[in-house]
Amino acid sequence: MPDRADVMARASELRARFEKAGAQPVETPVLQPAETLLDLYGEDIRARAYVTSDALRGEQMLRPDFTVPVVQMHMANGAEPARYTYAGEVFRRQEHDPDRANEYFQVGYEVFDRTDPAGADAEVFALIAETLSGLELTPVTGDIGILMAAVGGLSTTDRRKAALRRHIWRPRRFRALLDRFAGHAPVPPSRTALLAAADPIAGAGPDIGKRSLSEVAERIAALREDAAVPPLSETELSALEALLSVRETLPFALEQLRDVAVDLPAITPALDRLEARIEALAARGVDVRNLGFEASHGRSSMEYYDGFVFGFLATSRPDLPPVATGGRYDALTRRLGDGGEIPAVGGVLRPGVMLELEEAAR
């Protein structure tokens, strides 16, 4: 494993490189208010973050990443356009993978610019690709926005679409919901009995727990309403499955997705943005004809990505985490902007993994 001092030195070198590219260096506190992160991600974030508290500041989390505090800082007083860079430690619990580090350095480059989103996507990707040149890596790209657009265009209720959007970053739950909404999954007997009862709350016992009886009644009413909704059409379901299975080089991926758009026309604007991004990447010298695209890429990352996503993976070391990851997070600026918003995209590198690969290649 690389020495900590070497990792810190490499992190400083990378940040200096991004400063030279025009980024302003910024710092963020290691302790972040838990309320903001819980509001963004729900209680699921507790399984990935270290939580502490004190009497004055309430619950705090050891910084799980830099993007959220950088967005908060920019939306509070940042100028436009803006480019930022940072370097420091992040902390992630790794209960399901004890071999992975739970404390490691990240170096990032973030762009806030509303004039040319496709150009900003290409700028971030090309800069990080150039920074990583010399390492044996496999780059891969994706676009969460295409899947979000597909869900938004389904011929079903807003409640069902909201549930699917909420679980885009939880592939198993998303798949289970699709099966349920398509009528392919059996309804649990307990739910059938609940919905068949004339008064499901009668004889339910004392009002305990966090939900009031009125909230329980509202939930039962919502379940009854959902039970009467027709299943997803097989045409839309097949098109959505075809979309999720796209795994090709960029030009062929776009071609396949255009075919899918015949049955899911709502994705057409997202595909137009993908096409503009391909052109912007090519203009920066990226070999788009050999750059991979996976429609499901990024669905296990932090939930703030809502468009372009990318990663650089160690070709000969699949056991290692990605050397770099990133993507577009426009919706996050709306959530944290107190009424304001700005298109934003960024990426992070892991200098420790870079050094580990360099040592192995010697």
UniProtKB/TrEMBL annotation:
Leader peptide range in chain numbering: none
Pfam families, per database record: tRNA-synt_His
Domain Aminoacyl-transfer RNA synthetases class-II family profile: 14-317
List of residues binding L-histidine: 65-67, 92, 106, 110, 299, 304-305
GO CC terms in record: cytoplasm
Any one GO MF annotation of this record: glycosyltransferase activity
Keywords linked to the UniProt accession: Glycosyltransferase, Transferase
Disulfide bond recorded as keyword: no
Family statement drawn from the similarity comment of this UniProt entry: Belongs to the class-II aminoacyl-tRNA synthetase family.
Assembly information from the UniProt record: Homodimer.
Protein name: Histidine--tRNA ligase
Organism: Pukyongiella litopenaei
Lineage: Bacteria, Pseudomonadati, Pseudomonadota, Alphaproteobacteria, Rhodobacterales
